[in-house]
Amino acid sequence: MRSLALFLVAAAAALGADDPWAKVRELKSGTEIRIFKKGSVQPILAKMDEAGADSLIVVVKNEQVAIPREMVDRLDYRPSQPGGRVKTETASKTESPDQRVGEPPNPRESAKPTTTTSTNYTIGSKPDFETLYRRPPPAAKGK
Known about the structure:
By secondary structure, the chain is mainly beta. 15% of the residues lie in helices and 40% in strands. The protein has a domain at 18-82 and 127-134: Roll (SH3 type barrels).
């Protein structure tokens, strides 16, 4: 029984070696984030500026705000989309004069082919937020 407890303590220490805050520190400046603060019901929507060891600096409505790390319960981020949100589709169609059905020949027109081109733009939705950081539960104190 004692060896199982030692194993669990060692496993917890090994998992603790991966600092979840390190992922927050790797976020690029300008990334859209959603911060759930301790004791707050509404999340804060902001853009990432930088993260230090004990605080997070974000931009909220063009104002720079520092949030202490111990106040962050959860942090979500919106991943960037490769290629952007706007998709462009261009289609071209070339018709020769003998393919134009139903049109009487016009003597003023030369017998050149006609090309029609159309372009469609589609704006995609933003990707959903993904959870990047959750405050680890407090360490249990042994008696």
